[in-house]
Amino acid sequence: QSALTQPASVSGSPGQSLTISCTGTSSDVGGYDYVSWYQQHPAKAPKLMIYDVSKRPSGVSNRFSGSKSGNTASLTISGLQAEDEGDYYCSSYTSSSTLDVVFGGGTKLTVL
Amino acid sequence: EVQLVESGGGLVQPGGSLRLSCAASGFNFNSNAMNWVRQAPGKGLEYVAAISSNGGNTYYANSVMGRFTISRDNSKNTLFLQMGSLRVEDTALYYCARSLYDFWNGYSTDWGQGTLVTVSS
Asked: Which residues have C-beta within 8 Å of that of residue A38, sequence separation ≥ 6?
């Protein structure tokens, strides 16, 4: 069982906005501003989309945004496109792991 | 262009050992922390181990502590993962990844395509 909880699946139509949640505890998401999000397409390596809760690496579309409230972090995708379909993983610094970082279980995004 | 190429995966019996390598190019290898992430078939991502840019600090997941060793050779731009006492549950695609900073903080900006490790009798 993952330390961070994500919905197993979400779906939306092209052009819509949707949000993926990532719920942890005060030992991880709620205690530190070190949350990141990764996108993974089938049979491909993951791609960093958001770090430090809301920062975007160079080259990542501004349709992707991150936020945090209490123990829950969120990834919002606006203007949904077919290419956004894939798996999304959140990750957070944690004081409860020898590796200091944990992933969420992942969310499968389907564009209808 | 950043390139990370993993090698060394394969089929191994439970209790056996393997050494994974990751050849890096396209960036100053000694400027970034590096890490290994694995993904079991059809499952999610799991951080396995990380190492600071100069190799002075290493970090391991509880699940591999005492069995796996991460190391790097900055003169050869290569990252390693020595895996021992392998278990069936270690079966996964192992990714090599470049960290955003010279210290480990969990952000992996570039990834290889992975090398498959299968532990089975």
From this structure: A46, A47, A48, A49, A88, A89, A90, A91, B45, B108
